[in-house]
Amino acid sequence: MKQEFTRIAVKVGSNVLTRRDGTLDVTRMSALVDQIAELHKSGVEIILISSGAVASGRSEVHPQKKLDSVDQRQLFSAVGQAKLINRYYELFREHSIPVGQVLTTKESFGTRRHYLNQKNCMTVMLENNVIPIVNENDTISVSELMFTDNDELSGLIASMMDAQALIILSNIDGIYNGSPADPGSSVIREIDHGKDLSNYIQATKSSFGRGGMLTKTNIARKVADEGITVIIANGKRDNILVDLLQHPKETLCTRFVPSNEPVSSVKKWIAHSEGFAKGEIHINECATEVLNSEKAVSILPIGITHVEGEFEKDDIVRIMDFQGNQVGVGKVNCDSKQAQEAIGKHGKKPVVHYDYLYIE
Ligand SMILES: Nc1ncnc2c1ncn2[C@@H]1O[C@H](COP(=O)(O)OP(=O)(O)O)[C@@H](O)[C@H]1O
Ligand SMILES: N[C@@H](CCC(=O)OP(=O)(O)O)C(=O)O
Questions:
Q1: How far is ligand 2, taken at its centre, from the CA of residue 297, in Å?
Q2: Is the CB of 51 under 6 A from ligand 2?
Q3: In a 3-state reduction of DSSP, which class is residue 337?
Q4: Record-annotated residues binding ATP (predicted)?
């Protein structure tokens, strides 16, 4: 059967993989592995981003004394990740599919070089028919060095690997147009660009999840803007992955319509690099206007009102409009001192070139 996608990233949330008591749901894992194996055999390249390390480690160790949240996460994930990958290894082996483990950190996306190293690693895995299984390296990612959650990580991976679709599997059928607990609300089937969803999303999240629906929605929108279809669906439903690909119209989920404007690889990296921003470039009203137009424009010194923070050439900065709202992210062409000196001057080189500018 002809499929819409030939390369997909699949993110499986903690809740899909754990039972109510926090133990690893091996039956569910096995069902998902069977589906991934079926798609893999039909020619779809798959990158799996799997949560579940902390949840699966929790039932294995029983600390003598009370641990703080960081210690708990480090201890449980160290034990749980080994258990998780071991399970995947055994389950995929039944289908004669080799898998490889990729543990990453937010910092590993900070420089273009690290980014490309990771991309190369996963590309070579796919070329050799190995399914990459990605998770955050929770043992060394602490507080500000952490991803918001694995939804954020999955967005980065889908974008970096030029996936055609990102499928986020959670314990819910999609984004509801009200409280999911309210019988009157239903799943929004399709979300177009620019639709404001903030009224629908509740702050609640499932018992083992980290970010909740809000991060899922923000990530989904960003990734869809880069031309990648994003699907949020229920990983606990039988055959969900195969159904999503083979019977997309009949399968319940929320689908973010992708933008059809191509985004370059560098811009995709910049789009997800906001967390590494070293400073801010504030622009005036006129520059804000042109930036929001359809034109391809760079940030020139003439449109800059002030510069905040200290940065080096090639660092990531936030672009702020005349009202102080963030409108984009870019890679600077000079350091903060040179940018400062050039403010308001005509005929100078761009501080952020269009090729390295991502407007949100
Ligand atoms: N409008 C909404 N539609 C669907 N789910 C929502 C909505 N608002 C809040 N949620 C909550 O988001 C949860 C899913 O996010 P999360 O707990 O992070 O899951 P995961 O562990 O799969 O990443 C749902 O179980 C639900 O409780
Ligand atoms: N890296 C963590 C994932 C935590 C997380 O983001 O969970 P989720 O919100 O379920 O995707 C783990 O493996 O336990």
A1: 38
A2: yes
A3: helix
A4: 11
